[in-house]
Design goal:
The chain is an alpha/beta fold. Helix content is 43%, strand content 17%. The protein is built from 14 helices and 16 strands.
């Protein structure tokens, strides 16, 4: 068996489809986000980052950096092991209490990433509820899909944000069967929002639990950064909220918030929690500082929303094919993986502007796009530079403009 040729063929097929992913070699400049340096053939080159999920620049915030430096010098680098052995530090306890408070829940549980929190929580919930049916939005993140698959439960997929289809699927379930509706608040590739209150109405009517992924919304929405569920006043109706510390909070990690009993069950049964070395207390200290800051500061959220609105307006005025979005996500439709990669390459090589192409399977074929995430530190001048570069590239590649 020629194993190497099998692996090479798999990579060759990605190249042929234009879906082969290239990661640039980059370092961010502390204190000057979104400026960074990209390493290539002629040494480090200054660039402007347009696609970071550090939406608010909190990974550069002085209070976050100071908290991490203090923790590093006080307790050292690592946690020392899994939570049940030696990695249950006071930092972890403090952050979980802060996150539970953020979402108005009795408890919270930290994981090493948002992916792990989704996979571990959903797979464990399904296994603890015999005969459970999980109803999943068709655009749910891969981590949610992995968790649902691992649960061994029956899965029923409802059309994206389609309340009538969800209702139909709920009506088809056995009335006494355990049911769990899994969905997101902000869908990060299109920038649209789930009708959370109406989904909760259906959950109440048909006796279902609700599992809400808020990873692209925590820190970003609500008076305290509790996400869309806080903004819309429905957090108390959600059974389990899942979030991340690696996007708006600018650090690393994932979590769930729920009742004490549910948290205790996931803590006690989920292999993805039990057998994983806990987050470094240095990271936890930074995340704790970030959560606390964004609970009381609206400035970053306001500035970010203003930046997103401005960039959408500039793209639309230039007739660039900006896709509809009611959130901080600014997607620009290309519709071809090869062209999306080509635009990205030109922006970086010729203009020093960094944005990654988004291709299948992250988005459906034919909807390939560039996904921009303007932040509070992106200036109007930066946006003009980006818009001008895109207009030139669109003309050069003879791409279609919006009507």
């Amino acid at each position: 068996m020629d194993y190497e040729s099998i692996f090479k063929s798999a990579i060759d097929s990605l190249h042929a489809e234009g879906r082969y992913r290239v990661f640039i070699d980059i370092v961010r400049n502390k204190g000057s986000y979104p400026n960074a340096h990209c390493f290539g053939g002629n040494g480090p080159k200054p660039i402007t980052v347009w696609c970071s999920n550090d939406y608010l620049g909190m990974g550069q915030h002085p209070s976050v950096v100071d908290a991490m430096e203090k923790a590093l010098h006080e307790v050292g680098a690592g946690s020392g092991g899994t939570r049940n052995i030696s990695g249950n530090t006071h930092y972890h306890i403090q952050l979980e209490a802060e996150l539970a408070s953020l979402h108005g829940k009795q408890g919270a549980l930290l994981f090493t990433s948002g992916y792990v929190s989704n996979e571990a929580a959903l797979s464990t919930l399904g296994k603890l509820l015999p005969g459970c049916v999980i109803l999943s939005d068709e655009l749910n993140h891969a981590s949610m899909i992995a968790g649902i698959k691992s649960s061994g439960c029956e899965k029923r997929v409802f059309r994206h944000n389609d309340l009538q289809h969800l209702k139909q699927l709920l009506m088809e379930c056995e009335p006494d069967a355990p049911k769990l509706i899994a969905f997101e608040s902000v869908y990060s590739m299109d920038g649209d929002i789930a009708p959370i209150a109406q989904i909760c109405d259906l959950a109440d009517k048909y006796g279902a639990l609700t599992y809400l992924d808020e990873v692209h919304a925590v820190g970003m929405y609500g008076d305290h950064g509790g996400g869309i569920s806080e903004r819309d006043g429905v957090a108390d109706r959600i059974t389990i909220v899942e979030g991340t510390l690696g996007k708006a909070y600018g650090v690393m990690g994932g979590y769930i918030a729920a009742s004490k009993t549910i948290i205790d069950c996931i803590r006690s049964y989920a292999p993805g929690f039990i057998f994983t070395t806990s987050l470094s207390p240095v990271l936890v200290a930074g995340a704790l500082a970030s959560v606390r800051h964004l609970k009381v500061s609206q400035a970053e959220r306001d500035a970010q929303q203003a930046s997103a609105a401005t960039l959408k307006e500039k793209f639309a005025a230039a007739r660039l094919p900006v896709m509809p979005s009611v959130t901080h996500i600014v997607p620009l439709l290309v519709g071809c993986p090869i062209r999306a990669k080509r635009i990205s390459d030109i922006l970086l090589a010729e203009y020093g502007l960094y944005v990654q192409p988004i291709n299948y399977p992250t988005v459906p074929r034919g909807t390939e796009r560039l996904r921009f995430t303007p932040g509070p530190c992106h200036t109007a001048e930066m946006m003009d530079e980006l818009t001008g570069a895109l207009i030139e590239i669109w003309d050069r590649l003879e791409l279609r403009l919006a009507a």
